[in-house]
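Field log, afternoon session.

UNIT: design team B
ACTIVITY: writing a sequence onto a fixed backbone
BACKBONE:
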């Protein structure tokens, strides 16, 4: 079951959902709009290695905006810290943003019960696109979980700003040489 807008408001009011900062005007009929933060990260090398730490470049979006380029993966973040110890959050791009040719979070929309922090956004434009800090870029829906809840305590907990992949940590358990 998906939470409706009024139920999202009620869950924020009683603490079942945490959204900081929270604004009632960002509530939709069955989701909450999240805004783009001011920091973007790109990978600095032409080849990204899944089992190595990859160098990155940090870019800041000012009030004049930042032009995203096709063929580049940008890691952005939500301004809001969002999480729940009760509901399963899913983040998708807003249709208005999709109509501009920007893919947002198409490969990893599901959040874990128990995660709390800013969400890293995977941004990939079809054409050059100017984006701005604070623009409504995505929406989070909340679903009822069934069964025992084992809250998330993983490597991205309490994230602030865009977080590059930490898959390299799995290399140790996979037996990949350093």
């Amino acid at each position: 079951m998906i939470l409706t807008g009024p139920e999202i408001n009620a869950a924020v009011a009683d603490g079942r959902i945490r959204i900081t900062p929270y604004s009632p005007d960002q509530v939709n009929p069955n989701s909450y709009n999240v805004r783009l933060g001011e920091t973007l990260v790109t990978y600095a090398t032409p080849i990204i290695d899944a089992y190595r730490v990859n160098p990155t470049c940090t870019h800041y979006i000012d009030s004049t905006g930042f032009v995203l380029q096709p063929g580049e993966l940008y890691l952005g973040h939500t301004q809001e810290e969002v999480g729940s110890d009760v509901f399963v959050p899913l983040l998708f791009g807003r249709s208005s943003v999709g109509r501009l040719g920007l893919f947002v979070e198409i490969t990893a929309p599901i959040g874990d019960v128990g995660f709390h922090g800013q969400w890293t956004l995977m941004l990939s434009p079809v054409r050059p696109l100017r984006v701005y800090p604070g623009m409504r870029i995505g929406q989070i829906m909340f679903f009822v979980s069934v069964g025992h809840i084992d809250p998330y305590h993983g490597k991205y907990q309490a994230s602030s700003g865009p977080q590059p992949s930490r898959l390299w940590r799995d290399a140790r358990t996979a037996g990949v040489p350093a």
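LOG NOTE: The mean pLDDT is 93.
NEXT ACTIVITY: expression trials, pending approval
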